[in-house]
Amino acid sequence: MKRPLLWGGFAIALLFLGLTILNASWLAPYPAGAPKQVAQGALSPLSVAQPGEECASARIEPPYHRHLANTKESVLRAAKMGAWLVEVDARLAAGGEVVLFSDARLDCLTDGRGPVREASLARLRALDAGHGYSADGESYPFRGRGAKIETLSEVARAMPRRGRLVVHLASDNPALVEGVAAAYRRSGRDPVQAQDAFYGPAEAIAAIRKRYPDVWAFNPDAARQCTADYVAQGWSGFLPESCKGRTMLIALDEQALLWGWPNRLIARMGASGGRIVIEGPQASAAGPIAGVTLPEQLTEIPASFNGYIWSGDAFTTLPALITRFDDRTQEEIDASQAALERRRAVQ
């Protein structure tokens, strides 16, 4: 009786040792390169709305800089401050023009009404894009400051040579993908050569991959499924099919669940042509990508990580990693620090 138990224990010990070596991060090559931040919404106020809250995009922290999501000024400054990719939201307007706007309707953020898709470009340009933002429901700090709805072609044309966009395809309407492709043609920008990226609904991503086979494009739900599959199967040393050549989206507080994290997993994903994106903590299994919102959260990411970090507040997280591009005035730095202290107090 004792001998079978002894041999069983020995076999389990060998299996444990084998899995430990197979998934040992320290035995993998040290990854080349540095982490790359994605500026969610370019530089924009942080939303404080609760899930399901009406006009969620308009409910913000007290603003501490002048920038709004999807504006040319915000996009260009995020690129200047060192964002590897700057995120914008692409929506179809009447007539097939693609505009950059956070919501499907105009009611919450602007002084207009109705769906974006039913508004002409001329009508959209006449609206105040900062009209509805408020921290208290009584004051509207961006109202009347000249914020306008931009087109994708205008912003793509204005991007600096080293600047990159990640375009959120905000619907699965096939006409949106056609409009995005037309906007790129008008701007003279090739998304593959520019190393731009796309994310959005599965149908839209399939269509954009068909048009641009070599571009980085991903669906967040599929990227989270890749992570879940790897947690279940990664012990074997093999990547699940859902991860090969695709994107893995990892919540900041779930890194410890990953086999061979970080170096071994980075090597496995890299060998398959895949990419890794880290999002903020307590991310939901479905829905929008959650951004990192505090500079100290960056210290929770291993020093060897060379993938992408999704930032919900690039105005503070970009300078935390890339100080040489920090062009903030002292007044902006002081306002940022005060905003971070308020945020820490409620988190």
From TrEMBL:
Molecular function, one GO term: phosphoric diester hydrolase activity
One record GO biological process: lipid metabolic process
Domain of life assignment: Bacteria
Residues in the signal sequence: none
Domain GP-PDE: from-to ranges: 54-155
Database matches in SUPFAM superfamilies: PLC-like phosphodiesterases
PROSITE patterns reported for this sequence: GP_PDE
Pfam families the record matches: GDPD (PF03009)
Protein name: GP-PDE domain-containing protein
Provenance organism: Erythrobacter litoralis
